[in-house]
Amino acid sequence: MTTIEGQVDDGFGAVADAFRTNFDERGELGAGFCLYVDGRCRVDLWGGVADTASGRPWTDDTLQLVFSTTKGIAATAIAMAVQAGKLAYDDKVADHWPEFAAAGKGELTVGEVLSHQGGLIAVDAELDFDTIMQVTPVVEALAAQAPLWPLGDGHGYHALTYGWLAGEILARADGRRIGQFVQDEIAGPLGLDMWIGLPESEEERVSTLELAPPPSDPAALELMMKVMAPGSNGYRALSLDGQIRLMPENHFNTRALHATEMPGANGITNARSLARMYAATIGEVDGVRLLDHDTMQAARTERSSGPDLSLVVPTRFGAGYWLHGEAQPMIQDGSFGHPGAGGSLGYANPELGIAYGYVMNQMGSGLTGDPRNLALSEAVLAACG
Question: How many domains does the chain have?
Answer without folding.
Answer: 1
